[in-house]
Amino acid sequence: MSFQNLTMHKYSSTLSVVALILSLTMLIACDKTPSEHIKTLTEDNYPVANMPDEPLETPLEINIEPKRLAMTNSWSAGVKDDGTLWTWGTDGLLRDTKTGQDPTPRQVEDVNDAVAVSGGGGHMLLLRKDGTVWGWGSNRYGEIDPNDDDTFIEELRQIKGIKSLVYIHAGQQASIFVDSEGKVFFLGNNETGVVNGNIQKKFNSPVLVEGFEYIVKAEGSAGAIVALSEDGSIVSSSSTLDSLGNPNAKKTTISNGKIYYSPVIVSLPKQAVDFTKGYANFALLEDGSVWSWRSHEWSAQKESKEIFIKSPKKVEGLSKVVRLNSISSNTINGDLYTWGNYVYSSRSSSTKDYIQRPIRIAQDIKVDQYGTGGFADYSFIDDKGNAWMWGDKSDRGQWGTGKITEDYMPKEFVLSLHESLFNTHANK
User: Fold this and answer.
1) φ and ψ at 243, to 5 degrees?
2) Can you give the pTM of this predicted structure?
3) What is the model's pLDDT at position 197?
4) CB count, 10 Å around CB of 174?
5) What is the pLDDT of residue 5?
6) Are 378 and 391 contacting, i.e. CB atoms less than 8 angstroms apart?
7) What three-state secondary structure class fits 19?
8) Which of 206, 257, 374, 395 could make an SS bond with 162 (beta carbons 3.0 to 4.6 A apart)?
9) The CATH number of domain 33-423 is 2.40.160.40
């Protein structure tokens, strides 16, 4: 055999071996379940939270700072420290665009007294310095103006019948308000009877929610309300026991056989300084520990046969946390962790799975505040006023980077931070 043929023979044999190894590797990979793929991902590239169970040296104070960043399923909004309102994304921009879409943050005219903004599934709320609340977006359940049959409010509209507000929350099919006296009010869909056990498709005006007193922060939807009182207690009411965080709550059967659980205190070992409501609910305690309840898949707990966590459980591996939302936390040393539902894609397929334990996706991060609204969970404003996003939700320009990205992206993109053009400082 000639030298050239011998070389080609060796080369072909080498290729065959490589092909065999690749084939075996692919077969092994295909045998892995999605959870095993996620496990490999988190352990190899994104460390799983494994911090010592140590409390903060100085206990945290209750966090009731006005929220400056919000997102719906279509657009986003931000409030700068000069009181101006900025929007970006698709529809709901409160300003003229050629196509109804603009992925670059731009100022809304005639608003210079904004304090806070909140986003829900399809509508937004704006708190102004005079304590009034204004809304725009979806009005299907009277979340903004129950006396208007229009299902989408395109301009800023004041919500009547309520004043002296200090906190606002745009939830799914509902708007929640807290006034200066610590009272909670509700506007929107109450077909579950979560508000006072009174089944009603929509209210004609904001309704006082009974059983919530001395409240500083409240979040809710058509099925549940969660609130933080000034003494650090978390109070909740719901149409299901799984959402309450207190398995000893007493149920009341209301009309049509529906169940209503009146407000109860969530069972926690220490004073809470913050909470967030989502598929799973989370509480941040004064010692920096994180506790969760409700949907197990979103709870940041280890794998379990439980579908719902009815009593709050401590999230293992997380300690010295100073900021959190329903899918992320930031520790005092600057680590940013995340968990929950993520979708990764390749050229040929996509994989959806739940990260069961918190994984670290960034370091040297100081979160000033997270965004509000389920679609804003993957966002925060840092201590320098810069807005950051991650995840797979910029297909309509919601990130404010000036570009549109596809809905599903590779894991390296999904779990990377992307800086928005929005900054809370007035001079940027």
Assistant:
1) -90, -15
2) 0.88
3) 78
4) 29
5) 42
6) yes
7) helix
8) 206
9) no
